């Protein structure tokens, strides 16, 4: 007789414990882990060295001396070296008349090499993939690129597929966000994210300065990432997603138009990079930091910043005295490594200045830009691979990824390193010991500096001119 009253007394407590366990168990299965990733290294015959780049520029009959001078200045200050990769149609001299087949072949070279290696490294079978997200901004094929991957690897019929285009350089966090949201509603899911850019149909052959600049920065590359929310695979995971924030300023005309694909006055299609791009990027970056900082930084750092800001405003309002420099948040209090988008030397420098980063902090981004160029949405994964190849990533470290893209967008996310990571034979393995080099200056000025001394009225490059 005493058991029943006791049961009634304990029943609410048991219900509470059961509810708490359900919440805990649900959250355990909502975590987003990276099992592994694989960056693409094209074959050496696709390298764009100084001499060949000079030849490509000379082949563009739209250019005059002023354009040559502009290109020389841009390339010299770009931070790009001589070992970056381009599409085959440029290497074969067909950049003025690329075909759809060129773009498809460019993507297939990347797909087959990188995805094959990723499946081999992880032991995961293509038939075990539940979600596939493919982001290639400037190529929309029929059937879709995601369908081509599914067809080649014979993936299962109920796979969830997302094929993104037009997302630009910030597409990787968008793809991760899609996977993250799926993980919140379904258990034991394995997802494959494939990120790259097609340059074959996006190579600009006109003379608009704002558009030929993209030829100086963008290079071939890509990355495949395998993610899961399986608790059983937690110990094998490399990274765990802690936080992700997306900022979109597409409603603002200045931001929307600063980075856009369009035709120039002569009808040549290219990618316009406007003069107001740095301003638009800074605004998006600041707004993104305002949202993500409270989620990733220690409370003491946030309280200190708030207190100093309050003191500064009080001095200005009530004591009418100079308040001094604005207080700044020290992001290093909650972040160990900074994985910056390699949009260009100016982009890296701007982020470094805003976050007060050291040369050591931005070394991975600088070296990635020098070795691989701006590979669009995949660039942050090359930066991450550099950190791994240098044995910088240790268990519990926090890695902050920042990317910018057309729209205009700034997306960022924070990853936690799940175990000590070594080189693991990634894309940097063959040359990591030579990085960082003593100098990252490219030899363009040495070879083509004479252009700056030429007279526009008499300058002419003969058809049989031999590049030195």
UniProtKB/TrEMBL annotation:
- Beta-ketoacyl-[acyl-carrier-protein] synthase III C-terminal domain location is 335-416
**Pathway in which this enzyme or protein is active:** Lipid metabolism; fatty acid biosynthesis
Under the heading SUPFAM superfamilies, the entry gives: Thiolase-like
EC number(s) per entry: 2.3.1.-
Domain named FAE: which ranges? Answer: 26-313
Q: Where is the active site?
A: 169, 248, 337, 341, 370, 374
Give any single GO term for biological process. fatty acid biosynthetic process
Q: Tell me the InterPro entries matching this sequence.
A: 3-ktacl-CoA_syn, ACP_syn_III_C, FAE1_typ3_polyketide_synth, Thiolase-like
Q: Which domain of life is it from?
A: Eukaryota
Which residue spans traverse the membrane? 7-24
Family classification: Belongs to the thiolase-like superfamily. Chalcone/stilbene synthases family.
What name goes with this protein? 3-ketoacyl-CoA synthase
> What species was this sequence derived from?
Olea europaea subsp. europaea
The record lists the lineage as: Eukaryota, Viridiplantae, Streptophyta, Embryophyta, Tracheophyta
């Amino acid at each position: 007789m005493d058991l029943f009253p006791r049961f009634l007394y304990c029943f609410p407590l048991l219900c509470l414990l059961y509810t708490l366990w359900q919440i805990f168990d649900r959250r355990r299965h909502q975590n987003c882990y990276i099992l592994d990733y694989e960056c693409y290294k094209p074959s050496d015959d696709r390298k764009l060295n100084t001499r060949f780049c000079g030849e490509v520029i000379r082949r563009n009959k739209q250019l005059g001396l002023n354009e040559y001078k502009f290109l020389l200045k841009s390339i010299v200050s770009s931070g790009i070296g001589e070992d970056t990769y381009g599409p085959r149609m440029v290497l074969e001299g067909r950049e003025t008349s690329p075909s759809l087949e060129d773009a498809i072949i460019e993507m297939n070279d990347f797909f087959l090499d990188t995805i094959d290696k990723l499946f081999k490294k992880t032991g995961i079978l293509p038939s075990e993939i539940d979600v596939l997200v493919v982001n290639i901004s400037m190529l929309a094929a029929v059937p879709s690129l995601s369908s081509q991957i599914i067809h080649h690897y014979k993936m299962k019929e109920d796979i969830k597929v997302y094929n993104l285009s037009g997302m630009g350089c910030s597409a990787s966090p968008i793809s991760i966000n899609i996977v993250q949201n799926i993980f919140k509603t379904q258990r034991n899911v394995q997802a494959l994210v494939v990120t790259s850019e097609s340059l074959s149909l996006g190579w600009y052959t006109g003379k608009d300065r704002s558009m030929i600049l993209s030829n100086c920065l963008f290079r071939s590359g890509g990355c495949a990432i395998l993610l899961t929310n399986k608790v059983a695979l937690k110990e094998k995971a490399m990274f765990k997603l802690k936080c992700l924030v997306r900022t979109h300023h597409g409603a603002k005309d200045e931001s929307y138009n600063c980075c856009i694909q369009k035709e120039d006055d002569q009808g040549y299609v290219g990618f316009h990079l406007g003069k107001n791009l740095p301003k638009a990027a800074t605004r998006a970056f600041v707004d993104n930091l305002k949202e993500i900082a409270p989620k990733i930084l220690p409370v003491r750092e946030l309280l200190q910043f708030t207190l100093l800001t309050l003191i500064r405003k009080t001095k200005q309002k009530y004591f009418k005295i100079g308040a001094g420099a604005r207080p700044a948040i020290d992001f290093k209090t909650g972040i160990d490594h900074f994985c910056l988008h390699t949009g260009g030397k100016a982009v890296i420098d701007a982020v470094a200045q805003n976050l007060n980063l050291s040369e050591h902090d931005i070394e991975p981004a600088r070296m990635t830009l020098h070795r691989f160029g701006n590979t669009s949405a995949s660039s942050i994964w090359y930066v991450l691979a550099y950190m791994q190849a240098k044995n910088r990533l240790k268990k519990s470290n926090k890695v902050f990824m920042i990317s910018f893209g057309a729209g205009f967008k700034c997306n960022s996310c924070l990853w936690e390193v799940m175990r000590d990571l070594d080189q693991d034979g990634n894309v940097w393995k063959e040359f990591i010991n030579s990085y960082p080099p003593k100098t990252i200056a490219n030899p363009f000025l040495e070879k083509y500096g004479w252009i700056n001394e030429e007279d526009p009225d008499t300058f002419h490059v003969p058809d049989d001119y031999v590049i030195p």
